[in-house]
Fold this protein.
Amino acid sequence: MTAYILRRLLLIIPTLLIILLVNFAIIQAAPGGPVEQAIARLQGIGGGAIASSGETVHGSSRASRGLDPKLIKEIERQYGFDKSAPERLWLMLKNYAMLDFGSSFFRGAKVTELILDKMPVTLSLGFWATLITYLVSIPLGIRKAVRHGSPFDVWTSTAIIIGYAMPAFLFALLLIVVFAGGTSLNWFPVRGLVSEDFDSLSTLGKIADYFWHLVLPVTALVIGGFATLTVLTKNAFLNEITRQYVVTARAKGLSESRVLYGHVFRNAMLLVVAGIPQALISVFFAGSLLIEVIFSLDGLGRMSYEAAVSRDYPVVFGSLFIFTLFGLLVRLIGDLCYTFVDPRIDFHARSH
């Protein structure tokens, strides 16, 4: 298994390299780069207009007309665009090898500091949403499999279908309308991860305030993954319950709980464990952006989106690097989780 882990870790390096190369090439072709954004700010033009207008031609834009060419050259030097694309790529890769992501063009801070500052928000959302999803979905899926076709199975399936069909952002808006002042109920806050007076609260008060702010955004994130994982768990258990070894175990007089959790659980959970990487990646990367925007949470998803809009390339590439590395490591951890569920899996054989 050690050889398999080492091989997977070594494969992370070329994977990261290829992803960075592809995105670097795409960004070079994107109109409205940081130089044009800076020039637009100097002339009082909205940066977003430059980014969306596509009026950049051969490294200059209409917004730069009338400016001193020396000033334009200085702006290009400030953002590193006085060098050719291959030179910029080589410098970026060399710095990334030392985990130096550079400094933001427009935020006045190092990318590493920005990522570390925003990460607690995204980790909070992702951790609690994933934990709650698994704690609820796995027992519910098992119960639905055991009581397949019963009224309990029918009405829970109806609720699951509705939850799956409703996008996370739409469910978030519904939660805000119902529980955050849109009606007579104003139970939960809709801005930030903590209250403004958080520092003055007691330890228990801080914990309560933290979870109070998490209720709505985490609930909105859970709804989609909850439906998928519950159905996956139910189908996995239904598939195993009909197998011959289950019939044999029952014939030997084993109790239903012993059959279910001593024999079926280990085999059925392989499919569920296989879905852990996808569930984590979906929560952290796909769902977090809209939820962070809706609930005014200053996390990595929101920062990455704003950086892409403003063409803040160091933040864009730094976030991309972290997201990709996290995704690859999560997939590796998902493979290793197989051994905890079924020790019969031979990683040594897979590495050949």
